[in-house]
Design goal:
Elements lengths: L1 H13 L13 E7 L27 H4 L3 E7 L5 H10 L15 H9 L2 E6 L5 H4 L4 E5 L9 E5 L4 H18 L4 H26 L5 E7 L1 H8 L2 H14 L1 H9 L2 E6 L5 E2 L6 E2 L9 H4 E7 L6 E8 L3 H9 L15 H6 L6
Parallel strand pairs: 1-6, 1-7, 2-11, 3-4, 3-6
Antiparallel strand pairs: 2-10, 4-5, 7-10, 8-9
Length: 349
Amino acid sequence: MRNIHKILITLFIINCTAASASVPPPQNAVLFIADGLGSHYIYPELMAETHDGEKLQNTPCPNITAGGLRVLYVKAPVPKTGPGHSVIITGNSKATTETIPETTTLFDVLRSSEEFLILGVMERGSSLNMREKQDAIIYAKSNSIRSPIFKIQHKNAPSEIVKVMEQQCSMMPAYMDNTTGAAKYRMYNRFAIETTEKMVKTMLQEYPSKRFLLIVNVGGLESAGHYAGFSTYSEVIKGLDVDLYSFKKLCRDNHIVFLFTSDHGISFRTVDSRGGNAGSDYVGKTESLCIPLVINAENVKTGILKGEHGQEDIAPTLLSILDIANTLDADGKAPPNQKLCKHLCYNRC
C-alpha cells in the first residue's frame, strides 16, 4: 500500500504545473522534535488506548495543530530516540546513529547547496555523529531532569550565537529550581524553547543574510511519560502547546518554516502505569509508532493530509518547502499538497 502511495505521489508531482511566483520559498527553517510525543494523543481525529484497550483522553493542542498542514498518518520505522532522529535528518528509513557519518544528511544538503548554518538545541537525540554535522549545538550531556547538565559544541559559529548558548547554559539551573511534578518537565522543555527563540532572534538581528536550519528537541515529555505516567504526560503536552505560542508567532512573522514532529510516540499498559516505547511490549504499539507532522510555512496549504507516510518523508518534504534539490541518500518522499506542489514540488520531489 505504501509503495502504491509513493507512486501516486510521483505521478501527482509530475503533473504539477509551473510554480507561481506569488509566494517565494522561505529562507530559514526550524525543525522541532517533541521527544516521545505520539500523534494519537494530540490529533482530534485519533484516539490513544492503553494496552488493555482503555481509551485515553485526547489533549487539545491548538497552538501546535492549528494553522498548518497536518499530516495525519506518519509512522516511525523504529520507535527509539537514536534511530528516530537519524531517520528524520537523513530521509532514510534504515538510518541509525552509526550510519550518519557516511550518509548525505539534510544538514549536508543545506550546507553544500545554500551554505546554511546548521544549529541545534537538543535535550535528547544529540548523538556524537549528529553533533559533528552541526555548526553549533547546545545539548544535554545526560537525560537527567533533576540535575541537568548542558554542553556547547561549535565550529566556525557566529560569535553572537555562541554567546547566547553560553548565557543559556549558565541559566539552566534557575529553570529547574524548586520545580516538582508536571512543572518540572514543562520547565525543562521551556528551557529549550526559550533558548531557541533567543537564537532565532539573534540570527535575524545580527546575521539577517545568513540562512539557517535550527533543529530542536525537547525532552521533558518523554521523561514524563516514562517516569510519571499518563496524567503527567498529558499535562506536559498542554504546557508544551502553551509555551510554543510566542515562538511559533516569531517564526510566522519572519517567514520561517516551522516543522513540528517527533522521534517516536509512547504507549501505556494502563492509565496509571508508566509508559514505554522501545521495550518488547511497547515497540509494536500504534501509540509508540505514530508521530505528528505539522508544517507551518507560507507556501504550504493549511489543511489535513491523509494517506500513509513515514518518518523518512520529513527531510525530503522540508527540502521541497525550501525549494532545494533533494540529493539525500534517502528512500523518503515529499507528500503531495496542492499548494506546496504548485509552488515548489514540480521540479524538486
